[in-house]
Amino acid sequence: MDTKTVFIAEDEPLARDLLRDAIYAHPALRLVGEAGDGASALEQIERIRPDVVFLDIQMPEMTGLEVLRRLSCTPAIVFTTAYDQYAVTAFELNAVDYLLKPFTRARFDAAVARLLESPTPPRAIVDAALEQAAQRAPKPLERILVRDRGRIFPLSLNEIEYLKADSKYTAIAARGQTFLVRIGISELEVQLDPARFIRVHRSALVNLDFVDSMRADDQSQLVIQMRDGVVLTASREASKVLREMAI
């Protein structure tokens, strides 16, 4: 049996552990690398060029779809996601399969069985599917329903200053307060206007309209001063993006 080299691109530690254990236990697979964010995944996949990538759709710094779009190589893809609405997108992109988290070992083995039987699609087919998926991307949100002292009210995105991951919640800073919503920051990110809301690191998004200033630190990463006094340090990838946005 031919052994396939495998790379894991997954930001959730538990899901990454499950994938790692399952790959180690399968005689036809050999793990060659891991990444917990999109930027690191892109760099390592380009360098290692594995046969297979288990690719999370929602990751910090760069989504799985963005990673796939930027790759010069064409590994077989098995998407991993916590949201079943991405299943159609996964198959339209000619992914071998997708794993809905949390997945069982039996479901993993079924995906590997398909993987071993399926040829990798030509790059042109993947690029065409990516273009179609981009054209059907959902429109940005205009407001979010939040709770405050027993009340539920709509919060306009124009009022949101920044968002921070908080365990199973996302903390939204607005109106001089912090509101917790029961939705992950990665799920919110794909519904926000990317021209205004920037993922500055793994657990924070900022609304550029509420940024007071930015300066580079000793590591050439941008230190972001928000208008309310909060200071955030952008990752290297986000710092690069912000510099490119400057006129």
Automatic annotation (TrEMBL):
Keywords annotated in UniProt: Phosphoprotein
Modification type 4-aspartylphosphate: residues: 56
Xref: InterPro entries: CheY-like_superfamily, LytR-like, LytTR_DNA-bd_dom, Sig_transdc_resp-reg_receiver
SUPFAM superfamilies associated with the record: CheY-like
Occurrences of domain Response regulatory (ranges): 5-116
Domain HTH LytTR-type, residue spans: 144-247
Taxonomic superkingdom: Bacteria
The protein, known as: LytR/AlgR family response regulator transcription factor
Source organism: Massilia aerilata
